[in-house]
């Protein structure tokens, strides 16, 4: 008898809890939310350029990373609230750079190019993180077009490692490096590493619209806002540590970093909740004038009498798989 009473009370409690959950305002709010999870394969051809000048504007050095192929994977998630038209999304990507070279040109007033070298890139990789919140109401009900703003941040870490040195023609007859084609440093020797980090808030606009019952398109663009320490470059010269101190020998930072991103994707639904897509992405980042601060092993108040500016840009295409819940 006691056992039967206990079972009856337990059943009543569960029934009451279930009814309360269904009438709870928290339950009603989340009932209108849709979760999207997905993954992307991304291919790109990035390039990175940097110029270093004296305070009077005289060029000192120019670096160029070119001929690179990038392959990376990205996971992403998005919560859409159907009634409030707001969304929260995030992504994390990681990949590697393959091939490519670093061209390093050094200049001196009145002499022109005093050294020009090429080095092969190896052990290079990229990490991407984005987080955004936005509002995209239906603006044309007859077409299903949604359009609205979003805000968030972008974090990107690019690591370029160069090995070996091959001399190029210069304006001083190879006095510093050697004749063109000379390899004063073995191809396997690590010479330079640039660890570049971008951390930038952003604001943008997003639009999406169904084309057919199974096909939809989504495009977005964002402006990356300067003001914070949005750019940081740890510059390591492995063969000059006796002169410059332990690596990283120099650290460049900038509060003037800015840029923009563009992205478009076409989705094709292959199931009730599953879709595949193809898209393209463009990212341009500019450090502005970056200040070279003290490097490792140097006095804390010592600064390099130079200013540096860097530009990173990449065009990427991607394939994606997405599941909705």
TrEMBL record:
GO MF entry, a single one: aspartic-type endopeptidase activity
Protein's UniProt name: Uncharacterized protein
N-terminal signal peptide: 1-21
InterPro entries: OM_adhesin/peptidase_omptin (IPR020080), OMP_A26_sf (IPR053724)
Organism: Methylorubrum extorquens (strain ATCC 14718 / DSM 1338 / JCM 2805 / NCIMB 9133 / AM1) (Methylobacterium extorquens)
Keywords of this entry: Plasmid, Signal
């Amino acid at each position: 008898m006691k056992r039967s009473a206990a079972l009856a009370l337990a059943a009543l409690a569960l029934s009451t809890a279930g009814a309360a959950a269904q009438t709870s305002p928290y339950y009603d709010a989340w009932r209108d939310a849709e979760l999207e999870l997905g993954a992307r394969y991304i291919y790109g051809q990035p390039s990175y350029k940097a110029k270093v000048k004296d305070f009077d504007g005289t060029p000192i050095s120019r670096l160029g990373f070119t001929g690179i192929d990038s392959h990376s994977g990205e996971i992403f998630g998005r919560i859409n609230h159907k009634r409030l038209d707001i969304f929260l999304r995030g992504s994390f990507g990681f990949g590697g750079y393959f091939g490519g070279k670093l061209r390093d040109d050094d200049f001196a007033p009145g002499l022109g190019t005093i050294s020009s070298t090429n080095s092969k890139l190896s052990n290079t990789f990229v990490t991407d993180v984005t987080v955004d919140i936005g509002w995209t109401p239906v603006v044309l009900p007859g077409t299903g077009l949604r359009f609205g703003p979003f805000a968030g941040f972008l974090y990107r870490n690019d690591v370029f490692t160069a090995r070996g040195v091959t001399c190029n023609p210069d304006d001083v007859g190879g006095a510093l490096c050697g004749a063109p084609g000379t390899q004063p440093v073995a191809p396997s020797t690590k010479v330079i590493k640039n660890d570049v980090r971008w951390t930038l808030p952003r604001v943008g606009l997003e639009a999406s619209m169904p084309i057919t019952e199974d096909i939809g398109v989504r495009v977005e663009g964002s402006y990356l806002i300067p003001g914070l320490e949005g750019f940081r470059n740890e510059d390591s010269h492995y063969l000059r540590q006796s002169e410059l101190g332990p690596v990283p020998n120099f650290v460049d930072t900038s509060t003037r970093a800015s840029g923009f991103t563009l992205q478009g994707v076409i989705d094709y639904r292959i199931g009730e909740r599953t879709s595949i897509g193809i898209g393209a992405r463009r990212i341009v980042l500019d450090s502005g004038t970056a200040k070279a601060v003290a490097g490792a092993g140097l006095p804390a108040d010592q600064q390099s009498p130079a200013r540096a500016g860097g530009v990173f840009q990449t065009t990427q295409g991607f394939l994606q798989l997405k599941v909705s819940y």
